[in-house]
Design a protein that fits this description.
By secondary structure, this protein is of the alpha+beta class. The chain has a domain of 85 residues. It contains ten helices and eight strands. It is elongated and about 70 Å long. It starts with a helix and ends in an 8-residue tail after the last strand.
Length: 256
C-alpha cells in the first residue's frame, strides 16, 4: 500500500510529458519568421493554432530554443541553405505519423487496436483529417453536411449526406457512435451490438406505451414482430431490420 501510494502521488505531480524533439543532424534553429517568405499562409495561420504553444526549451539556459514550425519539422537551417527544396533537410509529418506520435502517444496506441483507420498501413496519415497549421480538424469542401460530420464526409459521403428520414444521432456528429482513431469493435463503434443502440433507445424495454416493446408488437406487412423480445437475436442494424442506420430516403424505420 505504501508503494502504491507513492506511485499514485508521483504520477499526480507530473504535469507534462518529456519527449525528444525532432532533430536533423547538423541543423540549427532559425525561427519561424525565416519560414514565412516561402510558407506565408502556413505561418500566418499557425500563429492561431494549438501547436503554436509547443516549444523546445534549451536545457543549458532554460530559454526557448525552438518553437513554431521547428517544433514539428525540426531545425531548419540546412533546409534554408538548400533553397527550401521540397522534402530536403526537413521532417514532414504528412509523410509519416511518427513525428506526431512523439507527443500523441495515446493515438499511436489507438491505431494499434483491432479496428482502426488505416494509418499504420500507410493509406492515410494524421494530416488526412487534421490540419496542424490552423484549425485542428480539416473542414470538408463542397459538402452539404455541417458541424461535426464535415471532416468524415470527405471520405464517407454516402453516410453523411442528408436523408429524407434523418437519424437524429447524425445531428450530434459521427463520434456519437464511432471512435475516431481505433476501437476493439467493428466499424469503430463505441459499443458492441445492441448496447450501442440502447444508449439512446433504452425505452424499448422500459416504456409500455412505446410501439417497439414486448407489450405492443409491431405489425410489418401481415406479420407481427415483438421487437423487445428480438433484441437478443441480433443487432438492430444487421439483422435485416434497421439497415439504413445513417438515415433513409425511403423508410421512416431506417430501411433501404
Amino acid at each position: 500500500m505504501v508503494a502504491l501510494s507513492a506511485f499514485v502521488f508521483s504520477c499526480a505531480t507530473i504535469d507534462r510529458v518529456v519527449v525528444a524533439p525532432p532533430m536533423i543532424p547538423g541543423a540549427k534553429y532559425v525561427g519561424m519568421e525565416t519560414c514565412a517568405p516561402c510558407h506565408e499562409k502556413e505561418v500566418r495561420d499557425f500563429k492561431f493554432a494549438a501547436h503554436a504553444r509547443v516549444t523546445i526549451p534549451d536545457n543549458k539556459n532554460g530559454k526557448r530554443e525552438g518553437q513554431g514550425c521547428e517544433s514539428c519539422h525540426g531545425p531548419g537551417s540546412l533546409h534554408v541553405e538548400a533553397g527550401g527544396e521540397r522534402g530536403k533537410f526537413i521532417i514532414n509529418p504528412n509523410k509519416s505519423p511518427e513525428a506526431c506520435y512523439q507527443c500523441h502517444l495515446e493515438k499511436q496506441a489507438e491505431f494499434n487496436m483491432p479496428y482502426h483507420h488505416p494509418v499504420r498501413e500507410g493509406r492515410m496519415t494524421c494530416t488526412t483529417c487534421h490540419n496542424p497549421h490552423g484549425h485542428d480538424i480539416k473542414l470538408g469542401k463542397g459538402q452539404t453536411v455541417s458541424r461535426l460530420n464535415e471532416n468524415c464526409s470527405q471520405c464517407h459521403r454516402e453516410q453523411t449526406r442528408p436523408k429524407v428520414f434523418e437519424h437524429a444521432a447524425m445531428r450530434e456528429g459521427c463520434t456519437t457512435c464511432h471512435l475516431v482513431h481505433g476501437s476493439i469493435t467493428p466499424k469503430l463503434l463505441v459499443q458492441r451490438d445492441n448496447n450501442l443502440c440502447l444508449k439512446c433507445h433504452a425505452q424499448l424495454e422500459s416504456n409500455p406505451n412505446n410501439p417497439l416493446t414486448t407489450v405492443r408488437p409491431v405489425r410489418i406487412g401481415a406479420a407481427e414482430h415483438n421487437i423487445g423480445g428480438r433484441l437478443s437475436q441480433g443487432t438492430c442494424y444487421n439483422a435485416g431490420c434497421h439497415t439504413a442506420v445513417h438515415g433513409s430516403n425511403l423508410n421512416a424505420a431506417f430501411r433501404y
